[in-house]
Design a protein that fits this description.
Layout (H helix, E strand, L loop, with lengths): L11 E4 L6 H12 L3 E3 H9 L3 H8 L1 H15 L6 E3 L10 H5 L4 E6 L2 H9 L13 H16 L4 E4 L5 H13 L7
Parallel strand pairs: 1-3, 1-4, 2-3, 4-5
Helix pairs in contact: 1-8, 3-4, 6-7
Length: about 180
């Protein structure tokens, strides 16, 4: 087999703002690659027996971030999967390094405005956006996290591509030899 048809042996980790499509794209890509898919928020909800919104309200963001770090440590030794951590996962010191190499981090880039449009069509409660001006908060999240998202191995601009094109791009990245910006 050539390197163009062989999948790399690490996790494919999708990062980006809330509403970037990490979970939606992650499920589709995992199916195409024949890999398990894990959404961090869903896994944490299963483990705690509480929704992310409820957990945030009762325990706070710091406790939630600690669960993300613990889950990341656990997954570092797991067989290759497609992972969709929450938008703030990148703010946890050292988590990217826990998964790469061989994991590959892919930033699903979306503007704060497009992310808000996408979220407005969703029924998912986003705890960090539950405030008087969620648009301002989304812009603030982008400003605070942009440099962290830019540490990704790849960038896919999801605003300019169809769902199928994003899926195809991510599958292609899983078969590519050397990380870069796409």
């Amino acid at each position: 087999m050539t390197s163009s048809t062989t999948q790399f042996d690490g996790h494919l980790v999708l990062v980006g703002l809330p509403g970037a499509g990490k979970s939606t794209m992650g499920r589709a890509v995992a199916k195409r690659l024949g890999r398990p898919f894990l959404d961090f928020d869903t896994e944490i909800e299963l483990r705690t027996g509480r929704s992310v919104a409820r957990f945030f309200a009762e325990q706070g963001e710091a406790a939630f971030r600690a669960l993300e770090v613990a889950l990341t440590r656990e997954l570092a030794a797991a067989p290759p999967m497609v992972l969709a951590p929450g938008g703030g996962w990148v703010t946890n010191a050292g988590v990217i390094e826990l998964l790469r190499p061989p994991g590959r981090i892919v930033h699903l880039r979306v503007s704060p405005e497009a992310a808000m449009r996408r979220i407005s069509r969703s029924r998912i409660v986003r705890p960090l956006l539950q405030q008087a001006d969620p648009e301002a908060k989304m812009r603030s999240l982008w400003e605070a996290r942009a440099a962290l998202y830019n540490r990704a191995d790849y960038v896919v601009d999801v605003e300019t591509l169809t769902t199928q094109q994003v899926t195809d791009s991510l599958v292609a990245l899983a078969h590519e030899g050397t990380p870069g910006v796409g």
